[in-house]
TrEMBL record:
Residue span(s) of domain Glycosyl hydrolase family 36 N-terminal: 29-285
EC number: 3.2.1.22
Catalytic activity: Hydrolysis of terminal, non-reducing alpha-D-galactose residues in alpha-D-galactosides, including galactose oligosaccharides, galactomannans and galactolipids
GO BP of this protein: carbohydrate catabolic process
Pfam families, sorted: Glyco_hydro_36C, Glyco_hydro_36N, Melibiase
Taxonomy of the source species: Bacteria, Bacillati, Bacillota, Clostridia, Lachnospirales
Name of the protein in question: Alpha-galactosidase
UniProt source species: Candidatus Scybalomonas excrementavium
Amino acid sequence: MAIIFEPNKKIFTLHTKNSTYQIQISKYGHLIHNYYGSKIENMDLSYLIQGINRGFSGSPYEAMAVEDRGYSLDTYPQEYPTYGIGDYRSSCLSVEHEDGSQAAELIYDSYKIYQGKYQLKGLPAVWAKENEAQTLEITLKDKYSDVKVILYYGVLEEFDVITRACTIYNEGEYPIYLNKVFSCCIDFWKNNMEMISFYGRHAMERTLQRRKIEHGKLSVGSTRGTSSHQHNPFVILCEEGVGEDHGVCYGASFVYSGNFIAEAEVDQINHTRFVMGIHPEGFRYYVEPKDCFFAPEVVFVYSDAGMGEMSRKLHDLYRNNLIRSKFMHERRPVLLNNWEATEFDFTQEHLVEIAKAGRELGIELFVMDDGWFGERDHDKAGLGDWFPNKKKLPNGVKGLAEQIHALGMKFGLWIEPEMINEDSELYRNHADWCLSIPNRKPNVERGQLVLDMSRKDVRDYLYDSISKILDEAKVDYVKWDMNRNLSDVWSAKVPSYRQGEVSHRYVLGVYELMERFMSNYPDILWEGCSGGGGRFDAGILYYMPQIWCSDNTDAIERTSIQYGTSFGYPISCMGAHVSAVPNHQTGRSVSLNTRAEVAMAGTFGYEMDLGTLREEEKEIVRSQIQEFKKYYNIIQYGDYYRLTNPLEEEVAIWQFVDKEKKKALVSVVSLRTRANAPFIKVYLKGLKEDSLYRIDDGEEVYRGSALMKAGFHIPVLKGDYSSLHFYIREIEV
Ligand code: DGJ
């Protein structure tokens, strides 16, 4: 049993393969967190919880009545701390009642354990078959009001995953406000912890940063309305010194695409509290009597064998139990996108020429990017007008799609449903459909405003106009872009007391629309995008199997971006393309080989006019596509190992190993060239110790244990940013 309740001890114990999580109901009915860490069986861990009377940390009334001064919500580890009742650390819930008071003292009421995993209405969440997961629901009630909270725990034993979420119910007769609702809290009774987070900016996303958690709050988050380029809603909590292959770490991934916060602090008695949820800034949720609020899910993945193992578990979880697209298990076509080749400036003939040149080299899918609709000749017009620009596409999207299909290729389309330009028919007819505050000029980014996705009429318009195109033309792939952050968040559709809900309702609206499209067009391969990787999160992966990783297609910068991304997300979901040189974003020139080496550690495609290549370069592209297909299974479904850290080392090396450990692919990219360079030795990982392996077509045979323990010298790489890969396969003896 993954979940055990011992009524006499009032203890809930959750076991995964390698971890244990324990909760107790205290003598006063509060839910106390006993432990989360390496597996411990058959043990009541309540002995860890010791109350000492500390000054300025009060006790609940009942405790004080019996002189139990050591029992304090301010020092005890808790499952779901609330604001207003004497715990001064970060709380998870702040409820405002009819009389303006802000407090909730949650007391245990009941529990439920069942096979399978809970789901959350209107929100993405990890899913599981009955035999893959168990759920624990714990119901808590405020001692003095009709606020009820259900905490959800999903236990996916094999993945070492525990998920958390909650619902807040108003069972009273008066409305309440939720000023803050986080999804989870974990109180670790130790203080030697670090938080690893992934910061960035447009075109440089998910750079790893490691900081010690100390006294005072350490937090990352987004108030941009999306998960953002600047901070990713995935963090790692670990003990000091944890590396790729050793040490205890906990990945925490928020399955949500809007504002978020991940916050950690060491409290006055040197214990570490971690909370995660929707960012409270600007958030205020009005809950009518008998209504409720669902807080999104947080996935915790545990490893006591370092961050490499943690990532691989998460990769497996997302590939098998989060992403729903059929393309998770089908080979995705090698793609060619016209954006960097043409931007807005193209004609149908030109696009067909580009596609044809690609087809000759083995490209399977041609994608028409931005610029095909309305008066979209530049970035200040057209968004919202989802009908073809007849100057560019005289026979509509259908006409182009037919030509592309006639070439024997699949056809894909770019859209940006959530946005609107003031210079558009949509804006001229429905100016009130965008987020903006009456009597204020809105903040503008890239010449565009944001549609109010919380409105059903807006979503219906988007669904109808875009699905008209998808029904008329045969579209095999859609890239769903989103090119600005939210500001001036105000909806013409909701009353003043509900304006604090709009950012969250926006995200729910996006999910609702995505769900409608995904379920009605399941054969389309959907790719998420937000100016590259500005909305690269587990929430989007529930709807789309891949996300464009970054607008930065410079292969060298990409080694860091993809390295950072790999900590929390599988390789199979990272959109990665070979683009032209000098690179559009950095001006750097890197060989075609290296550009492909890096793009192959992703979904792989091209983003350039392949017709402009020299004959020998075309030959290289042809063989790259063949190579990618050859290694497809191992890259997309295998285990991923980070062998170096490109942020700190002179060479980026990574490795894929198939699940049977019979094949491996190692990629090497030189980030700095040096004269008379020292050897680069690589220690392979994930092979079978006793098996014999051959490298490429070499004569030599190596034992797995030797490649992993004694290592292997990489041939000296000469020239700027050169690269190579080698293929390792087990030989039968
Ligand atoms: C941002 C995307 O990341 C690019 O790939 C491209 O689609 C542009 N938007 C088009 O506007």
